[in-house]
Design a protein that fits this description.
Elements lengths: L3 H10 L1 H7 L13 H32 L1 H14 L4 H13 L1 H11 L5
Helix pairs in contact: 3-4, 3-6, 4-5
């Protein structure tokens, strides 16, 4: 099964089968031998990713406040890679600078490596 959430529902329905074999045959990427532990591992991985996202957001927020010109230049550099000229992306950058929340969301979506 491709979808992990779907797999979890399937596992709950067939957990006696999974526990009988000590490893669910549908869990190809599980590091643990017991399916419930595998789900705990996935939960911890998701929690770690959420913590990382929060740290990245805080870092971007701090940079927008501390070095706004550098952050605006980063946006311009990315847009220039798509073939836009400064007179074309300039109004977009200025619009984002006027709306810090939108600027932060833009930076999180397009400028961070993981998100």
């Amino acid at each position: 099964v491709e979808n992990n959430a779907c797999h979890f529902k399937l596992w709950r329905k067939t957990r006696s089968h999974c526990l009988q074999f000590k490893k669910c045959p549908r869990m190809h990427d599980c590091e643990f031998s017991d399916p419930p532990l595998c789900h705990v591992g996935r939960y911890l991985a998701a929690q770690s990713e959420a913590d990382h996202y929060k740290r990245e957001m805080k870092r971007e927020q701090d940079e927008i406040i501390a070095v706004p010109d550098t952050e605006a230049a980063e946006i311009g550099d990315i847009m220039a890679e798509y073939g836009l000229e400064p007179h074309e992306y300039g109004p977009v950058v200025e619009g984002l600078r006027r709306n810090p929340q939108a600027w932060l969301e833009f930076m999180m979506r397009y400028m961070t490596s993981s998100y």
